Amino acid sequence: MRSLDALESSLIAPRRFTLEEYHRLLHVGVLGEDEHVELLEGLIVDMAPQGRPHALAISRLTEFFMAARRPDCRVRVQLPLSLREDSEPEPDLAVVTREEEDRAQEHPHTALLVVEVAAESLRADRLLKGRVYARAGIPEYWVADVEGRVVEVYTAPDAVQNRYLGMRTVGAGESLGSPALPGLALRVGELFA
Fold first, then answer.
1. Cα separation values, 129 from 3, 6, 39, 73, Å
2. How many CB atoms lie within 10 A of CB 23?
3. Which stretches are transmembrane (predicted)?
């Protein structure tokens, strides 16, 4: 006979969706394309609303990224990435190869660099999304912390451990670059000014 705790936990266990099921929910209109949700590890998750500092950081990053992008890459702003069978996050920015974007049936399956701008979502961006991006093998992941006024740079994804092995914090007096954007020399202080 099952204990009451086991019964309660089975009653409140969330239903996880595959990427295919998630796309069907969008296709038949159960989820509207304008709803602010994303699929993370099989769960349909509400996306945090954007305050002014969050929106300004995305706008500034977009300008910097577009100016520094390689001819063989595209900068995607708040567009989905179809990662593995259970996740389709919508990062604030992603740098993908043109080839990857053009050959994807739905959305690109990988990126060279992904950026999340975080305020209320800081913990989820560090842990949950970091795990999703590391498991997908995305080589570089940035979390732009608008309240802390720093950018956390995660590198060396380990798909077995579902985490990034390298992490450094870049503050206001420092510059930030990326192998995905060789022309980028972003002064972090300008991002949050």
1. 34, 29, 11, 23
2. 17
3. none
Q: Say how many CA atoms lie within 13 Å of 77 toward its Cβ.
A: 11
How many residues in the chain? 193
Give the tens place of pLDDT for each residue, 142-161: 999 999 999 999 999 999 99
What are the structural domains of the chain?
Answer: 48-191 (3.90.1570.10)
pLDDT, tens only, 17-35: 988 899 898 889 888 877 8
The label of the residue with tokens 């086991």 reads 6
CA 72, chain centre distance (Å): 21
- Looking at beta carbons, which pairs linking 153-158 to residues 24 or more positions away fall under 8 Å? 154/130, 157/133, 158/134
